[in-house]
Amino acid sequence: VQTWLVNGRLQNAISLDDRGLAYGDGLFETIAWRRGQPRFFDRHLARLREGCRRLDIPAPPDAAIADEIGIAAAGSERGTVKIIVTRGCGRRGYAWEADIVPSRIVGFDPAPAEGRPAAGGASVVYCDTPASCNPRLAGLKTLNRLDNVIARAELRGRRAEEGLMFDDENRLVGGTMSNLFVVRNRELATPLLDRAGVRGVMRDVVMERAREAGIACREIGIARSFLESADEIFLTNALTGLRPVTLCGSSRLEAGPVTATLRAALLECGVEECAA
Amino acid sequence: VQTWLVNGRLQNAISLDDRGLAYGDGLFETIAWRRGQPRFFDRHLARLREGCRRLDIPAPPDAAIADEIGIAAAGSERGTVKIIVTRGCGRRGYAWEADIVPSRIVGFDPAPAEGRPAAGGASVVYCDTPASCNPRLAGLKTLNRLDNVIARAELRGRRAEEGLMFDDENRLVGGTMSNLFVVRNRELATPLLDRAGVRGVMRDVVMERAREAGIACREIGIARSFLESADEIFLTNALTGLRPVTLCGSSRLEAGPVTATLRAALLECGVEECAA
What we know:
Two copies of one chain form a homodimer. Chain A is α+β, with helices and mostly antiparallel strands. In chain A, about 25% of the residues lie in helices and about 30% in strands. The first copy, chain A, contains seven helices and 16 strands. Chain A has helices at about 20-25, 40-55, 60-70, 145-155, 200-210, 225-230, 255-270, and strands spanning about 5, 10, 15, 25-35, 35-40, 80-85, 105-110, 120-125, 160-165, 170-175, 180-185, 185-190, 215-220, 230-235, 240-250, 250. In chain A, a hairpin with a 5-residue loop joins strand 9 (about 160-165) and strand 10. The interface between A and B is large, with 66 and 66 residues.
């Protein structure tokens, strides 16, 4: 990341007493910066606020974040914005003091998105690393992401763009850095994120666009067998949009009509990565 | 924390690109510094090495850590040493570069241990916050501790020293910052940490001393009903030693003969907190 601000000040380091480092006590957002603007900014802010509420961290003012993104990204057409909010600096120990001040961290990275996809569809494999399960934290983009880190490392040396993670009951949670949708009989299904996983902003957008297009979408428990009987599968991610999966484990798939409809709908609302 | 060193240099901040902050991608140790020495140092180093092995982080050299603790704690008789090892600084994204250099962070805090216990036994309550479950991470003291943080916050305004956490199958994992042992019929039981929790150094010491004293100890699944039929219960923690529980939920208990035997055994091997 090229430029960082902490509570409005340009700096590239943070106190070693920050609880974000000590315990992963905080949240983050990764936002596509396109045509000099943060894409789906309101949705990212809403998710961040919801996460702060659930973790009992005072949410940062939207205006401060907007200003700081403007400073960090000044002059750039394209890149990635990262926001981190931690509970702040404290003494040792899990308890925190009443007067603790959250750390509001904003960064801008002009580099292309990690794993910027090649043209065509994505290959995905199954990861052995399970997703960490905790209903109290499920859906949030917390700083506790070690399961994703370890799962991601399984992809080294494999011809796969993404790895799928399952919970301890062998229900699909998603990719290491994306949400997953399955199409069967022209209906959409995506994992119910009640025990693990991150509720992605692009996932929400896709579910809304699907409803508008008259495509039913259910959040359900998804087993491997369900995946293997899919007509279409695609991945969603705030930075890369909607990517069709053309190889899932050993199953070959094609980008079908539902995928095409939703890619067109996303392109219409600014997800340029969905251009053909 | 009063003094920090990062990779051997005195500093109080760390790069915002460190993956310890970004993802909780690392481990930590909290070590009692007593009579000018780190207690059970070899055991803490062994657990740290094991954690590094499981997370595929090159383990820091023992000698470097020992030297840096000496610098941070110089002149102090008593306090707390904290070691943090992260995977290091990297670009955005869960994957890491082959040449990444781990961050080795050593700190010393002369303040008394957090929640330094009052005399007498501990009161414990049941937390609603579940423990995060992941067999791949279970037992390790990783930087992903948000479940403990949220559970600990449940104790505010309650007359309890510790809160007990359960996994999603309602099996006991331990306290938010301690391991727990149950005595029934003069035999010890402690949660099997195969899905969640931290394998505490004091837990290991207690299990060894128990065996030497001819007290059987099993690692098993422990339900609430098992706790409620206990003859004795105690908590273990590297900083506070072994503490009898005298109130568990609504059950009153007394420190019994097994607790007394083990406290005496710990006192003999330097756990001064177990003095009567």
